[in-house]
Amino acid sequence: MLSRERLQERFIEMIKIYSPSKGEKEMADWLENWLSARNIPFQSDHAGEGYGGNGRNIVAFLKGTGSGMPLGFGAHTDQIEPCKNVSPIIEGPIIRTDGTTTLGGDDKSGIAAILEAVEDILESNAPHRDIYLVFTCSEEISMQGTKHMDLSMLPCYDLVIVDATGNTGVVAYRAPAMEAISVTFHGKKAHAGIAPEQGVNAIVAASKAVANMHIGRIDPETTSNIGRIEGGGATNVVTDEVSFTAEIRSHSMDKLAAEVAHMESCCAEAAKSMGASYTFQHELAYPTLSLDLDCPLVQFTKKAMEDEGITPDLQIIGGGSDANILAGHGYRSVILGLGMRDVHTVEESLDMDEVWKATKVLRHMMDAE
Predict the structure, then answer these.
(1) Residue of 78, 120, 158, 241 with catalytic role
(2) Which among 91, 92, 132, 264 could bridge 156 via Cys, Cβ 3.0 to 4.6 Å?
(3) Active-site residue, selected from the candidate residues 107, 119, 139, 158
(4) Residues 92, 185: one domain?
């Protein structure tokens, strides 16, 4: 039978494993030991080597004993810093930390829920569909683990990613694409007190460009943000170089391309007006995730929740995840919530009532039809 006590104990055990992005080896070792102890076959890759990390992606497989479409269940192993020496505080169903670290509900609660559902499958010997378990590394740094994943390990194209904020019932079925942008303005140095007219101030050029950009909420599908700006030095020197980084997200690839073009045109106009030059680099960080509401995976997820007495909350979200990267390779994914709160902060907490409900939904989805 499913065990809430075991679910919580396993979660506590995992959050005490230090597994920051690029440093998930110990967590991967723990998972592989767990799988090996239960005679569940698995494969792993060398993804971390591709971006300077030591983590790896793991895909395990439980051959079905009954009918039903194959399903993958995924969560990521890395955790936002600071995450060393996590000290959990349990207050009824709520687990938080002492305020010095993140908790790791994002996304070790997802791992815990998946493992508990599988544990019950093994103990009960219940008929089940083909099940793939997908544990990725370095999701928190632009999904580097999935970007470097050996996809030959994963022949299943319908996936349930357990990695959304909000309560059980949240089903994200659409997420935006994102362009990562880096801009550098080049001006000309001069003494700011003696001959400022001989200089070209790159800070001013950059500020003119940014002032004309569309920043923030552009429309219901599109957002933009300047994340970092740096450059300059002494106040008596006209600054000759300044750089900034930005992002644009949209559920529409046409709108995304249009906003990238607009941002660059703002840079071009500002540079021209100042007699400066600039470099503008952009890269598609991840594509859109876009499923139709009548997609079999969405409908199956919705019914599983209803069967467990949970009202599905179908959402279009603004964040990216492993599901976006996999979508670019033809995979279909829904992203489920399970009680995460204030993720990526030292105020992070987890509602175990919600994790328990999510675990029961996952277990239901693993059943044979």
Answers:
(1) 78
(2) 132
(3) 139
(4) no
139 a catalytic residue: yes
247 tagged catalytic:
no
Record the pTM: 0.92
3-state SS of the chain is: CCCHHHHHHHHHHHHCCCCECCCCHHHHHHHHHHHHHCCCCEEECCHHHHCCCCCCCEEEEECCCCCCCCEEEEEECCECCCCCCCCEEEECCEEEECCCCCCCHHHHHHHHHHHHHHHHHHHHCCCECCEEEEEECCCCCCCHHHHCCCHHHCCCCEEEEEEEEECCCEEEEEECEEEEEEEEEECECCECCCCHHHCECHHHHHHHHHHCCCCEEEECCEEEEEEEEEECCCCCECCCEEEEEEEEEECCHHHHHHHHHHHHHHHHHHHHHHCCEEEEEEEEEECCEECCCCCHHHHHHHHHHHHCCCCCEEEECCCCCHHHHHHCCCCEEEEEEEEEECCCCCCCEEEHHHHHHHHHHHHHHHECC
The residue range of the domain holding 277 is 177-286
Task: Provide the CATH number for the domain around residue 275.
Answer: 3.30.70.360
Residues 249 and 310 grouped into a single domain: no
